[in-house]
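We both want to read discrete structure tokens more fluently, so let's practise on a single case. Once you have written the record down, we can walk along the chain together.
***
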Amino acid sequence: MRHLLIIHNPTAGPKSKARLEKVLCALGGEAISLELYPTKAAGDATRYLQKTPLPEETVVVAAGGDGTINEVLNGLIGKANPMAIIPLGTANVMAKNIRMPESASGVAQTLARGGLAPFYPAIVTDDSGHKTRFGQVMSVGVDAQSIDTVDLNLKKKHGKLAYISAMLKQLPRSLSNTWQYQVAGSTDRHICSTLIISLGRYYGGKFTIAEAGDWQKSVLHLLAFQKYDSPIKALAMQLLWMAALPLGLIEYMPGVETQDVKKLSIKELNLSYDSAPVQADGDIITRLPVTVEIEATPIQLLVKI
């Protein structure tokens, strides 16, 4: 019998709570056993999993948004347990990438009867040597700066609109962004204004940024946005890229370079910043400089078969 350890945030909004209840009710008719762990604070899921011995056959289920999924992913470092998700949050990039069913009954069926597929997370190592896993998207630039300054009260009330508001406020400051990245094994150093690294096809939920992205490949999908010296040109290109994002065309826009890599380093060249924020899976995880690399060994992810 499959055993599920479902980790969830008890302070989630009413819609998330109602959806979780529907999934739990649907699981009641399946031949599985389960236990619930309500998190107590930010980062608690990671700490709990790291300190708690688990039978290897226990499937650890992240019930929540991208942040909860990331906490569970980091909590499973060094463990062989399979992972699954119950998508509840705002974006749910991983749910889109692995084509998790949207209905509560479909999610329950996947948890109870789904199969295991290999998935390669990535690791971000900062200047202090601290390592953080991510499973969806990492970036530096205007989107990371927006997440770093988003109004949390506005986010609670209006979801994604809060990020759009923060991004518009950050646009003038972002025009001076200057990052340098270097792919492992190459002597070339590249300059850009924003850098997005994806492990799959989607960004921010349903927006396609890597049409050929495959979440089962052990590769980092890199999108580098050109740095422009002219503020007017830089602003015009930022607006063009923002307009292309919901259309799924951003990787084809002028000024956007794409590349699949295994490892790269990123640092800041704009000395007007103390240190630039790095976001992964929707939260700020550290500051530049960092090294990013795909993990050599996959975790096992529960998916629909």
In short: Residues 201 and 304 are 18 Å apart (CA to CA). The first helix runs from residue 14 to 27. The chain has two domains: 2-113, 122-296.
